[in-house]
Amino acid sequence: MDVIETGLVKTKNFDHTVPFTLYKKYTRKDVCRLLNWKKDVSAPMYGYRVGKDTCPIFITYTKDNSGKRKGENYENEFLSTSVVRWFTRSPRHLYSDEVRRLLEKDEAGEPIVKIHLFIKKSDAEGKDFFYLGECKIIESSASEKMILGKNGHKKAIVALDLRLKTPVQYRYFTMLTNDDNKNN
């Protein structure tokens, strides 16, 4: 009985109508399961996956410059507590299928694909990402950029500003954006 009562008390902190809870941590595998996707596509998901009507985006805020993607600099960043600049993988253009799907709207002007944003400070934090909520693309922000790939060749990506439905609480914002080296 104690276990059941404890479970019932703990569930009062969650909204059962939405798959994720703000500021809780999730792995890519958790996200696939909670979105009720038929297959676990967490291994090849990398930074994001544009599904039929949902797109989870995973950002590692502070990159390890010695990693295997050295040379590719996506520069995802908070512009404020409610706007994040995000970059697609390469090669992508404004006319690429997945970019068009992200920008597509229904008759009421609402995005067809719902975007969920997950961020962790660095790879040192393991596989868990904080859920920062739903967001919408600021259409006027969509632009093509060029980055230098691993082999020194330029590759096209698309930059998009994402407006969070709920601004990030200050303590999470500072935890994710502060440079730990300044504190040492």
Short description:
This protein is an alpha+beta fold and 184 residues long. It has helices at 2-11, 28-34, 97-103, 170-177, 180-183; strands at residues 25-26, 54-60, 77-78, 83-87, 114-120, 129-148, 154-164.
Give the tags.
184 residues; alpha+beta; 20% helix; globular
Reconstruct the topology from this structure.
Blueprint: H1 2-11, E1 25-26, H2 28-34, E2 54-60, E3 77-78, E4 83-87, H3 97-103, E5 114-120, E6 129-148, E7 154-164, H4 170-177, H5 180-183
Order of helices and strands: HEHEEEHEEEHH
Let me know the number of strands. Answer: 7
Q: Would you identify the CATH architecture? A: Roll
Spans with pLDDT under 50 lasting ≥5 residues? 66-71
How does the helix and strand content classify structurally? alpha+beta
DSSP helical segment count = 5
The CA-CA distance between the termini, in Å, is 48 Å
Classify the fold: give the CATH topology: PUA domain-like
Share of β-strand residues: 25-35%
Helix percent reads 10-25%
